[in-house]
Amino acid sequence: MSMTIKLNHTIVHSGRAAAKFFTDLFGLPAARPFGPFLDVEVSNEVTLAFMDADGMEVQTQHYAFLVGESEFDAIFGRIQTRGLAYWADPGKHQKGQINRHYGGRGVYFEDPSGHLLEIITRPYGSELPG
Ligand SMILES: [Fe+2]
Q1: What's the first-to-final CA gap in the chain, in angstroms?
Q2: How much of the chain is in helix, strand and coil states, percent to nearest 5?
Q3: pLDDT confidence of 1, banded at 50, 70, 90?
Q4: Mind listing the pLDDT tens digit for each residue in 8-19?
Q5: I want to staple 88 with a disulfide (CB 3.0 to 4.6 A). Which of 10, 18, 94, 120 is the partner?
Q6: Within a 10 A sphere around the Cβ of 14, how many other Cβ atoms?
Q7: pLDDT of res. 53
């Protein structure tokens, strides 16, 4: 039996600035308003539906993105240009560093709502390049 199950969309409770922060930093087209949401679609057809949670307490979540080498350079470059804090680890102990897990590059940073974002160039569990 074969089944196809793909994550299609999720709601990101966030401050008003989060969608623009995300599209600017990741170099994506501006978010599309859809009802109460600001929709951003990433390359694997997953939509992040940013919902304005200004005035609400946002439970921070973790969102990780697998990106190409040139996208990593561009996004990480914007992180540095903006002077955003970044870490090599999710516990935020290794400030100002990136990691080299699975032979790639990875880094953690926060969006304006405090969500912990991560970009990686190799998926978790990847074989080390031979
Ligand atoms: Fe992660």
Answers
A1: 34
A2: 20, 30, 50
A3: low
A4: 999 999 988 999
A5: 94
A6: 26
A7: 86
- Distance of CA 107 from the midpoint of ligand 1 (Å): 9
Residue 88 Cα to ligand 1 middle (Å): 11
Reported as a pLDDT band with limits 50, 70 and 90, residue 55 is confident
Q: Could you tell me the distance, in angstroms and rounded to a whole number, from the CA of residue 110 to the centre of ligand 1? A: 13
Q: Provide the whole-model pTM.
A: 0.92
Alpha-carbon distance values, 45 to 41, 42, 58 (Å): 6, 6, 25
Percent of the chain at pLDDT above 70? 97
| CA 128 – CA 130 distance, rounded (Å) | 6
Residues 122 and 103: beta-carbon distance below 8 Å: yes
> Which residues neighbour ligand 1 (ion) by CB within 5 Å?
64, 118
